[in-house]
UniProtKB/TrEMBL annotation:
Residues 29-545 form the Major facilitator superfamily (MFS) profile domain. The chain crosses the membrane at residues 29-54, 66-86, 98-117, 123-144, 156-178, 184-206, 313-335, 342-363, 452-478, 490-511, 517-541. This is Major facilitator superfamily (MFS) profile domain-containing protein. The keyword Nuclease does not apply. The lineage of its organism: Eukaryota, Viridiplantae, Streptophyta, Embryophyta, Tracheophyta. It comes from Penstemon smallii.
Length: 578
């Protein structure tokens, strides 16, 4: 592009808009493909609110933590398969066809969930939705990156991240909109099919990725698309760059297109292997900071903080998802100016600080939970009291958290005068819940009344602000540009699978962890994982800002050695050469 390496700090957010204004076709491509990110984000956010009402409709779900975790995480399990299949499919049949297939599968899943007659059917629909999300999660940013000029590639791929967070924000708005509507969660989950239909018809009118077309020897088609993306004087240079990349692949002698031949060649190829070290590291780190515990269980976490109302929990969760969307805009503004690596490292420091603070806060909230009063508990009759409390050896030492942790059959009914005064530990049945609320008391099953609750919500907001601009969007950008063309689909697929496997582990264990070691211990555990992730990013992930794909390959051929200033020696040399 214009004489070789594009100097990174000349790349600004405004450059993206200037280029898009001259070539609006670029933005059309980016936003149409980016709807795949919207599907990803909507599915991530919508289940957190829908789960509150699914628990009310199905007693088996409300009583069994593993079933709640399964409903949430089966979409992630489907996404693991979808991401792996999507990488292979997009390499063989094209990025466009992979996105279209993802839309069809996602739509089927949304319809199945909306029509569910039992938890098993919701789980089946979640698997289908996951397949679609998994394919879209790696194919959409790949399509955008291959149809973007190098100098604004990061900002354009960030539109996918913006639409992910926008989809999460939209899901919370829709959750709130349907809280008073008959069918609540059915509408929440069913609406997910709408953006899939929209993207399907938009993508039908768009071309295939020019880089993929060139790889298939469809040179005329590739050139015609590049002419819509680049200024006339840059088209020939881009064609030459693509030709050079293909010739380099042929020179390697690794022409095999099969899965096993590609996997075999990966470990013998220094460039691809080092790219995978970086790509897989950032994807695993993204999940083990615990972000999807917030996204999938945000209303539940807000209830842990002491806000018992479903509607209140959803409204407060809307704040965190809104901050996530704002953070994505920040990423678009700075990712091509300050670099991928630096944003991720700064982001990780903020995440670790917030997780440690959240751990301390939840520990204090648990320690200062309102006591359980025998008088208050017997106020509703002895047969209404939680059996675990009646059988306790030292019931006078119980507080609200003791009651809730004793059994899933126990709930806390707050004091009528003040929710912070001693309350009742009762059997968690619909009839007794009605008696508690009938006396204008608050019913707690997930968390306890706490004066620290609002601070927990503020810290969740700070956590999102730290996460979104860096670890939220940058891992997808890194994976869209760090692999050679021939291995871009399978490399992105492997990294996406690692992301979804990590996501599955986190989402499938979060509620169980909170029961086993408490909210405070769980957040502290994620802080430890985040610290490990920070170290791994520092040592394994190079800077790729402003570089053409071919230049990234050359950088990986040399190898990467980090410096304490958070940039590689090569980066410094580039900066000094200006």
């Amino acid at each position: 592009m214009e004489g070789g390496i594009v100097k990174p700090d000349k790349t600004e957010f405004t450059e993206c808009w200037r280029t898009s204004w001259k070539k609006p076709y670029i933005m059309r491509l980016a936003f149409s493909a980016g709807i795949g990110g919207l599907l990803f984000g909507y599915d991530t956010g919508v289940i957190s609110g829908a789960l509150l009402y699914i628990r009310e409709d199905f007693e088996s779900v409300d009583k069994q933590t593993w079933l709640q975790e399964t409903i949430v995480s089966m979409a992630v399990a489907g996404a693991i398969v979808g991401a792996a299949f999507g990488g292979l499919f997009s390499d063989k049949y094209g990025r466009k066809k992979a996105i279209l297939l993802a839309d069809i599968v996602f739509f089927i899943g949304a319809v199945v969930m909306a029509a569910a007659v039992g938890p098993w059917m919701i789980i089946l629909g979640r698997i289908f939705v996951g397949l679609g999300v998994g394919m879209a999660s790696m194919t959409a940013p790949l399509y955008i990156s291959e149809a973007s000029p190098a100098r604004i590639r990061g900002a354009l791929v960030s539109t996918n991240g913006l639409l992910i967070t926008g989809g999460q924000f939209l899901s919370y708005l829709i959750n709130l909109a349907f809280t008073k509507t008959p069918g609540t969660w059915r509408w929440m989950l069913g609406v997910a099919g709408v953006p899939a239909v929209v993207q399907f018809f938009l993508m039908l009118s768009l071309p295939e990725s020019p880089r993929w077309l060139y790889r298939q020897d469809k040179l005329k088609e590739a050139r015609s698309i590049l002419e819509k993306i680049y200024p006339a004087h840059e088209v020939e240079e881009e064609m030459k760059a693509l030709q050079s990349s293909i010739e380099a692949e042929k020179a390697e002698g690794s022409i095999g297109e099969g899965l096993f031949s590609k996997l075999k060649n990966i470990w013998g190829n220094d460039v691809v292997r080092r790219g995978l070290y970086a790509g897989v590291t950032v994807q695993v780190a993204q999940q083990f900071v615990g972000i999807n515990t917030v996204m999938y269980y945000s209303p539940t976490i807000v209830q842990f903080a002491g806000f018992a109302s479903n509607r209140t929990a959803l409204a407060l969760s809307l704040i965190t998802s809104g901050l996530n969307a704002i953070g994505s805009i920040v990423s678009m503004a700075f990712v091509d100016r300050y670099g991928r690596r630096r944003l991720m490292i700064i982001s990780m420091f903020g995440i670790i600080t917030c997780l440690v603070a959240l751990s301390i806060l939840f520990f204090e909230a648990s320690s200062h939970a309102p006591p359980v009063s025998s008088f208050e508990s017997l106020h509703f009759a002895r047969n209404s009291t939680c059996p675990s409390f009646l059988q306790a050896s030292e019931p006078s030492n119980w507080n609200c958290m003791s009651c809730l942790k004793a059994s899933s059959d126990c709930a806390f009914c707050a004091n009528g005068d003040s929710k912070y005064h001693p309350g009742a530990c009762l059997a968690a049945t619909d009839a007794i819940r009605g008696m508690c609320r009938g006396e204008q008391r608050t019913w707690y099953t997930k968390g306890c009344p706490s004066r620290f609750g609002i601070f927990a919500v503020l810290l969740l907001g700070a956590y999102i602000i730290s996460y979104s601009p860096g670890m939220g969007t940058v891992p997808w950008i890194v994976n869209s540009e760090i692999y050679p063309l021939k291995y871009r689909g399978i490399g992105g697929g492997i990294a996406a699978v690692s992301n979804w496997v990590s996501n599955l582990i986190v989402s499938e264990t979060f509620l169980t962890l909170t029961e086993a070691i408490g909210s405070a211990g769980t957040f502290l555990l994620f802080a430890g994982f985040s610290t490990i992730g920070l170290v791994a990013i520092f040592f394994l992930v190079p800077e790729t800002k402003g570089l053409q794909f071919e230049e990234v390959e050359k950088m990986l051929e040399k190898g990467f050695r980090p410096r304490l200033c958070c940039s590689s020696k090569d980066d410094d040399d580039d900066d000094n050469s200006k």
